[in-house]
Write a structure and sequence with these properties.
With about 120 residues, the protein is an alpha+beta fold. About 25% of the residues lie in helices and about 5% in strands. It is built from 4 helices and 2 strands. The chain has a two-stranded antiparallel ribbon. The longest helix has 13 residues. It starts with about 30 loop residues before the first helix and ends in a 25-residue tail after the last helix. The relative contact order is 0.20.
Length: about 120
Protein backbone atom coordinates (compact mmCIF):
# COMPACT_ATOMS: atom_id res chain seq x y z
CA UNK A 1 0.00 0.00 0.00
CA UNK A 2 1.44 3.37 -0.99
CA UNK A 3 1.53 6.08 1.67
CA UNK A 4 3.90 8.90 0.70
CA UNK A 5 4.86 11.59 3.14
CA UNK A 6 2.21 14.18 3.81
CA UNK A 7 2.62 17.17 1.56
CA UNK A 8 4.60 15.29 -1.10
CA UNK A 9 4.14 16.53 -4.64
CA UNK A 10 4.04 14.30 -7.68
CA UNK A 11 3.94 15.56 -11.24
CA UNK A 12 1.23 13.93 -13.29
CA UNK A 13 -0.12 14.28 -16.83
CA UNK A 14 -3.02 16.79 -16.82
CA UNK A 15 -5.08 14.38 -18.94
CA UNK A 16 -4.69 11.52 -16.44
CA UNK A 17 -7.92 10.28 -14.88
CA UNK A 18 -8.56 11.13 -11.22
CA UNK A 19 -7.37 8.61 -8.64
CA UNK A 20 -10.05 6.00 -7.88
CA UNK A 21 -11.08 5.09 -4.35
CA UNK A 22 -9.11 2.35 -2.60
CA UNK A 23 -10.47 -1.01 -3.79
CA UNK A 24 -12.01 0.41 -6.97
CA UNK A 25 -10.69 -0.87 -10.32
CA UNK A 26 -7.47 0.71 -11.56
CA UNK A 27 -8.10 3.45 -14.11
CA UNK A 28 -4.50 4.24 -15.04
CA UNK A 29 -4.23 7.44 -12.98
CA UNK A 30 -0.57 6.67 -12.18
CA UNK A 31 -0.63 8.15 -8.67
CA UNK A 32 0.70 5.02 -6.96
CA UNK A 33 3.65 4.52 -9.34
CA UNK A 34 4.49 8.21 -9.45
CA UNK A 35 4.59 8.34 -5.64
CA UNK A 36 6.96 5.35 -5.30
CA UNK A 37 7.80 2.14 -7.11
CA UNK A 38 6.18 -1.15 -6.13
CA UNK A 39 8.48 -4.07 -5.25
CA UNK A 40 8.75 -5.02 -8.94
CA UNK A 41 9.32 -1.37 -9.84
CA UNK A 42 12.12 -1.21 -7.28
CA UNK A 43 13.88 -4.02 -9.15
CA UNK A 44 13.58 -2.41 -12.57
CA UNK A 45 14.06 1.18 -11.36
CA UNK A 46 16.92 0.31 -9.00
CA UNK A 47 15.51 2.75 -6.46
CA UNK A 48 13.12 2.72 -3.50
CA UNK A 49 11.78 6.27 -3.68
CA UNK A 50 10.36 8.52 -6.36
CA UNK A 51 8.53 7.65 -9.55
CA UNK A 52 8.94 4.21 -11.05
CA UNK A 53 10.97 4.34 -14.25
CA UNK A 54 8.80 1.60 -15.80
CA UNK A 55 5.68 3.78 -15.68
CA UNK A 56 4.67 4.85 -19.18
CA UNK A 57 2.09 7.36 -20.37
CA UNK A 58 -0.21 6.35 -23.22
CA UNK A 59 -1.32 9.35 -25.30
CA UNK A 60 -3.81 7.16 -27.16
CA UNK A 61 -5.48 5.84 -23.98
CA UNK A 62 -4.82 8.96 -21.86
CA UNK A 63 -3.71 6.65 -19.03
CA UNK A 64 -0.55 5.48 -17.34
CA UNK A 65 0.50 1.87 -17.85
CA UNK A 66 3.07 -0.38 -16.21
CA UNK A 67 5.89 -0.81 -18.69
CA UNK A 68 6.44 -4.33 -17.36
CA UNK A 69 3.04 -5.19 -18.83
CA UNK A 70 3.32 -3.13 -22.01
CA UNK A 71 6.91 -3.89 -23.12
CA UNK A 72 8.83 -5.68 -20.37
CA UNK A 73 12.00 -6.40 -22.35
CA UNK A 74 12.81 -2.66 -22.34
CA UNK A 75 13.09 -2.71 -18.56
CA UNK A 76 15.00 -5.95 -18.03
CA UNK A 77 17.83 -5.23 -20.47
CA UNK A 78 16.59 -7.46 -23.29
CA UNK A 79 15.50 -4.86 -25.84
CA UNK A 80 16.00 -7.14 -28.84
CA UNK A 81 13.39 -9.72 -27.83
CA UNK A 82 10.28 -9.98 -30.01
CA UNK A 83 7.35 -8.22 -28.24
CA UNK A 84 5.15 -11.34 -28.33
CA UNK A 85 7.96 -13.82 -27.68
CA UNK A 86 7.83 -16.46 -24.95
CA UNK A 87 10.13 -14.62 -22.53
CA UNK A 88 8.13 -11.39 -22.81
CA UNK A 89 4.90 -13.32 -22.19
CA UNK A 90 6.41 -14.97 -19.10
CA UNK A 91 7.67 -11.62 -17.78
CA UNK A 92 4.21 -10.08 -18.33
CA UNK A 93 2.55 -12.94 -16.45
CA UNK A 94 4.99 -12.55 -13.55
CA UNK A 95 4.58 -8.75 -13.56
CA UNK A 96 0.77 -9.00 -13.59
CA UNK A 97 0.94 -11.17 -10.47
CA UNK A 98 3.55 -8.98 -8.73
CA UNK A 99 1.60 -5.75 -9.21
CA UNK A 100 -1.74 -7.44 -8.46
CA UNK A 101 -3.19 -6.28 -11.77
CA UNK A 102 -6.97 -6.45 -11.73
CA UNK A 103 -7.26 -6.54 -7.93
CA UNK A 104 -8.09 -2.87 -7.47
CA UNK A 105 -6.51 0.36 -6.27
CA UNK A 106 -4.37 -0.09 -3.16
CA UNK A 107 -2.91 3.41 -3.03
CA UNK A 108 -4.08 4.98 0.23
CA UNK A 109 -3.06 8.42 -0.97
CA UNK A 110 -5.12 11.54 -0.52
CA UNK A 111 -4.88 13.66 -3.62
CA UNK A 112 -5.70 17.33 -3.84
CA UNK A 113 -7.32 18.76 -6.93
CA UNK A 114 -4.81 20.37 -9.31
CA UNK A 115 -3.95 23.97 -8.66
CA UNK A 116 -4.07 26.20 -11.73
CA UNK A 117 -0.73 27.75 -12.57
CA UNK A 118 -2.35 31.05 -13.36
CA UNK A 119 -4.56 32.89 -10.86
CA UNK A 120 -8.22 33.25 -11.86
CA UNK A 121 -9.12 36.41 -13.70
CA UNK A 122 -10.59 39.20 -11.63
CA UNK A 123 -14.04 40.28 -12.69
Amino acid sequence: MVRPLSGSVIWIQPEAPPKPAVGAPCNGCGVCCLAEPCPLGMLVSLKREGACRALVWSDADRQYRCGMLVHPSRYVGLRTLPPQGLLNRLIRRYARRMIAAGIGCDAAIDTDPPVDAAPPEKR
